[in-house]
């Protein structure tokens, strides 16, 4: 068996794992990153980075790599919906919420991971692609075992960062499981050919039994998402699934009945379905020798779209501990645990409200959405939870997280 040693072993090469590797090696720590894919490929992961997440990327010094990997600034958000005529849909300028960050970024996840991993490798990180059968032993001297080709390898590190996303593999191995709940289902597909779609405008809305999203990635490319009831799960599997998915963007709520999407889009990646799961830690996110980051540490309903932003903040806070503390005991990460618990409480609450508004379907839900949109037009304060998509959770006014506020928001249709 081959034995390697390092300061930090990272299991998982997504946005959280690669960003941590890049930042920590740039600041003098030795890092081994283990990723099970042989090459980064499109797994249909989150591909929208909020302005507050862009600011986190800037602090970590990975914003240039995100741009190299195809990060595309989106400047406007149009809230098309069946309850308003397309010409009356509200458009929001997203470029001024976080000073210096600009608008959110639409990113091809796998290409950005590749670019950040390359930056980490240039800084001195060891990036191991095709690391299979990873097993983590927690403790004061944690160990990660894996196989590469036919070779068994053991990594002895001062600490292990679990960054395997919603697979939660490290957390399960070291006794840090998640509670889960499913609100609805979703599917995603990366496409090209959207030459008539304005590349600086993203879309979100609901029509019939589907919540639709369009996130441009530049040059006619975009990631398309649909959310729908759990009773319709697996509707985009089997022969002709991509064609059915694109046909469902033939929407009256979109300009031109969505022809600029469904008639023009050509798939350039796989179509994947998934349950929209909320993950909440059962016993915490830190134990002896192991810290969980990114989605592995818990996440809100995907309709909120801040998973990547959370991952980058996790990396920054955990890295600050690793670079400032001599002893990496669980107690040293108390600030991370407290900040993340507060952050997730707000994000899970806000996501539940947005999911109720956008991802519940039928006549009652449509009537609710129509009334709430009218209320928001009359009183901008009713839009407060929408700020979670733009600014850090701690900057969103406290009143938006009260049951009283939600009761008043939905009171006529609950």
Automatic annotation (TrEMBL):
Domain FAD-binding, residue spans: 6-348
Recorded GO MF terms: FAD binding; oxidoreductase activity
Superkingdom of origin organism: Bacteria
Keyword entries, A-Z: NAD, Oxidoreductase
Protein name per the record: 2-polyprenyl-6-methoxyphenol hydroxylase-like FAD-dependent oxidoreductase
Organism: Prauserella isguenensis
Upper lineage: Bacteria, Bacillati, Actinomycetota, Actinomycetes, Pseudonocardiales
């Amino acid at each position: 068996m081959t034995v390697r040693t390092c300061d930090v072993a990272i299991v998982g090469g997504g946005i959280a794992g690669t960003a941590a590797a890049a930042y920590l090696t740039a600041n003098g720590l030795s890092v081994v990153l283990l990723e099970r894919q042989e090459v980064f490929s499109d797994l249909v992961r989150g591909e929208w980075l909020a302005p507050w997440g862009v600011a986190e990327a800037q602090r970590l010094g990975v914003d240039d790599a995100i741009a190299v990997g195809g990060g595309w600034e989106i400047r406007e958000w149009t809230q098309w919906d069946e309850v308003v005529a397309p010409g009356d849909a509200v458009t929001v300028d997203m470029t001024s919420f976080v000073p210096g960050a600009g608008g959110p970024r639409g990113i091809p996840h796998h290409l950005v991971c590749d670019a950040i991993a390359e930056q980490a490798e240039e800084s001195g990180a060891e990036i191991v692609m095709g690391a299979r059968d990873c097993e983590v032993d927690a403790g004061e001297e944690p160990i990660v075992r894996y196989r590469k080709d036919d070779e068994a390898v053991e990594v002895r590190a001062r600490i292990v960062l679990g960054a395997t996303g919603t697979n939660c593999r490290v957390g399960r191995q070291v006794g840090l499981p998640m509670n889960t709940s499913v609100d609805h289902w979703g599917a995603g597909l990366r496409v090209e050919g959207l030459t008539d779609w304005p590349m600086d405008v993203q879309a979100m809305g609901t029509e019939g039994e589907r919540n639709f999203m369009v996130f441009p990635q530049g040059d006619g490319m975009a990631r398309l998402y649909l959310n729908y009831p759990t009773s319709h799960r697996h509707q985009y599997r089997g022969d002709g699934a991509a064609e059915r998915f694109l046909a469902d963007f033939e929407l009256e709520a979109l300009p031109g009945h969505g022809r600029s999407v469904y008639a023009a889009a050509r798939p350039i990646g796989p179509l994947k379905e998934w349950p929209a799961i909320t993950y909440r830690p059962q016993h915490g996110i830190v134990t002896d020798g192991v810290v969980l980051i990114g989605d592995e540490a818990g996440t809100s309903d995907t309709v909120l779209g801040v998973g990547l932003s959370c991952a980058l903040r996790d990396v920054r806070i955990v890295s600050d501990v690793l670079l400032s503390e001599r002893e990496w005991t669980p107690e040293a990460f108390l600030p991370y645990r407290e900040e993340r618990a507060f952050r997730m409480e707000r994000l899970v609450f806000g996501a539940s409200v947005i999911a109720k508004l956008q991802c519940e379907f039928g006549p009652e839900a449509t009537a609710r959405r129509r009334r709430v949109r009218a209320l928001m037009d009359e009183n901008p304060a009713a839009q407060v939870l929408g700020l979670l998509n733009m600014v850090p959770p701690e900057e969103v006014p406290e009143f938006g997280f009260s049951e009283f506020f939600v009761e008043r928001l939905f009171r006529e249709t609950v």
